[in-house]
Amino acid sequence: MRHLYTIFIIALFCSCEVQYSMLDSSIDAESFSVSTFEGQAANAPAGYAIRFTEFLRDFIVSRSKMKLKKENADIEISGIVTSYYTSPVAVQQDEIAALNRLSVTILVSVINNRDEKQSFEKNFTQFSDYESSQNLAAVEEALLEDINEKLGQDIINELSKNW
Predict the structure, then answer these.
(1) Closest-CA residue to 159 (of 126, 125, 111, 127)
(2) pLDDT digit string, tens, across residues 40-57
(3) Taking a C-beta distance cutoff of 8 angstroms, is the pair 147, 115 a contact?
(4) CB of 132 closer than 8 Å to CB of 97
């Protein structure tokens, strides 16, 4: 019985995987900059675009070898928070939502000063669900942390897919 338990624990650890990726060292860029994102989504909390900008800077620094610069960077990133809304996602028999979804869409523009062909402009949308019995204001901070993490990973994936 003890061996079976040990095998189960080993199998459990072996099946786990890390859900983030590092930018590959083959990227032909040494530096990046992130301009302050604009907040055009009417429902977004005040300062969310600035908070996301700071998050993205830290996210890229922690997952790449590139250095953050204020200007003249190899890769220049800018963006706009275009959409921020909640919607019901799990309607029950009594037509009351069991879950609500907070969704955020960001338009990201990337200028690659070393290789123009790798520049892009793309919308990224992510969401996080919460119980409908919860007040959005009470859970919004945690939801935004989750959404920002997902958006950051999407942006990094797009940055690194051509390298």
Answers:
(1) 111
(2) 999 999 999 999 999 999
(3) no
(4) yes
